[in-house]
Design brief:
Length: 190
Amino acid sequence: MKYFVHATSIIDDDVQIGGGTKVWHFSHIQGGARIGEKCSLGQNVNVSNRVKIGNGVRVQNNVSIYEGVELDDYVFCGPSCVFTNDLTPRAKYPKGTAGYKKTVVKEGASIGANATVVCGHTIGKWAFIGAGAVVTCDVPDYALMLGVPAKQKGWVCECGEILEDSLVCWTCKRKYRKTENGLEEIKNAI
């Protein structure tokens, strides 16, 4: 299966793009980037050197994914969300890759429009970062994070619905229990 790249986009050498992926207007995929199958990268997206993006990822317009960021399968990056990769950048004293801190966004997590993810943290699977939030810490699996700085305000289901105290989704009927890493789904509970 082939992929689509709009004529206005630039794809550097040594890039892998999976089948069914679409790269839209004015985007740039830099050398060493690895992008999975059936992804969508919107207008004006920059994927920096050696970034890893899983399958089924959706990156909306005006997002830069800097070196050191990894997006697992089915991650959603809302319009103009921001990733960083250096905690102490200085124009006069560039550190290059030695100063980059790794950021991992686990399977199914969503990052809202204009949210910022400060580098060096992990966003847990199926977590939900609200629009405009600023993530400055690790995020548990299925956590709902809102505000500046982002604080956990509840839990979300894999389907995206906010969970009540019972940890049962009223939409899809999935059931969860709390663990030290956040929530986990109780299998065969649907």
